[in-house]
């Protein structure tokens, strides 16, 4: 008595030939010629007889070696799982004893691993038991109540605040399992805004993985050190009635003045204790920097405690320009966006990506020669519009002459069309909300 014969007997007794389709049972899943012949006959009989299954007597007459098992009570899911498990093992044996040795000899180590991984994924997909297409409202009601209770207790998801209280009031904050985009025109501060968000999350205890494809580690960290020290109001600014951080340009050039340098070195010595959270930085030119979404998925499996992933910029991923399975313009980038969405959801982390807006002509004021702040619009999203679709919020940003503005160009849960003016002394680590009337008055009283 085989699993295949047991399954086919159940189908005959239940007059349920569509079970072969529902559970994606292929003729090749059956291990013997007898079982494959019986499966083919049952399908052919149903096709010619209005979908009806043949009787067991008819099957045995047509396929004499077939063993009929009456009154099978095992579920389709169990029997299909056993059948496909056996099929998978046979395919793996054929792969190992067949083309694997040849590929191992022909390909480099990296290419062989890629080929073998794809083959294993193909076997896995072909031998998996299909899941139900969905759940009823009655099923969902039970799950919904359980999820509500978990959210009420704060155990279902994590919410991380941004450094902008007014923005938090509008959108709630950054939720685990959701994706947030940052868009600005070239050189207008999208990476800087991401660093400000990261600084805030680290202060809340988050573990953040950053992939910086365009900025090297020293430059990226120099910005973070300015932001950190600005939050600590470490330096008095001669031209502004605000406390600021260490000047970024002076850190980059290695020329902090004699008063600031000892403070900077002391901060570096204590950097491991500074943040409650943890920063894992992969930066441009680092050997650790990986460039595929498969790598990201693997890294999140290695570190399941990570709370947030930052991809800066999204088009730094090799997947964006990789194999275009659907043969449409921008298809690879769209598939990459969908794959990123699945990874973020599966690992229940905050996903942040930056993207460059297509550049529009900027007008300058004839009197001052300065341009005005202008936030990009959603139709300026480059690379793929799928990035707009997967984002819970798309933040747009611009800054000029010490002033900045952040806007919500897409708000799945509210906030769309919201804008917030900011103080943007970015060389000194300052990107914060404009002070309120009370704060301004306090500065003058001081």
What does the secondary structure layout of this molecule look like, with pairings?
Layout: H1 3-14, H2 19-22, H3 33-48, H4 56-62, H5 76-97, H6 99-106, H7 109-126, H8 137-152, E1 159-160, H9 165-171, E2 174-175, E3 179-184, H10 190-203, E4 207-216, H11 217-231, E5 235-236, E6 243-244, H12 248-253, H13 260-269, H14 271-274, E7 278-284, H15 293-302, E8 308-312, H16 331-347, E9 350-356, H17 386-390, E10 393-400, E11 403-411, E12 419-425, E13 430-433, H18 437-445
Parallel strand pairs: 3-9, 3-10, 4-7, 4-8, 8-9
Antiparallel strand pairs: 1-2, 5-6, 10-11, 11-12, 12-13
What's this model, at a glance?
The chain is 45% helix and 16% strand. The protein is α/β, with parallel strands linked by helices and 446 residues long.
Description:
This protein is an alpha/beta fold. It has helices at 3-14, 19-22, 33-48, 56-62, 76-97, 99-106, 109-126, 137-152, 165-171, 190-203, 217-231, 248-253, 260-269, 271-274, 293-302, 331-347, 386-390, 437-445; strands at residues 159-160, 174-175, 179-184, 207-216, 235-236, 243-244, 278-284, 308-312, 350-356, 393-400, 403-411, 419-425, 430-433. The strands form three sheets. A nine-stranded mixed sheet has the order 7-4-8-9-3-10-11-12-13, with helices on both faces. A two-stranded antiparallel sheet has the order 1-2. Helix 1 packs parallel to helix 3, helix 1 (3-14) packs antiparallel against helix 5 (76-97) and helix 15 runs parallel beside helix 16 (331-347). It starts with a helix and ends with a helix.
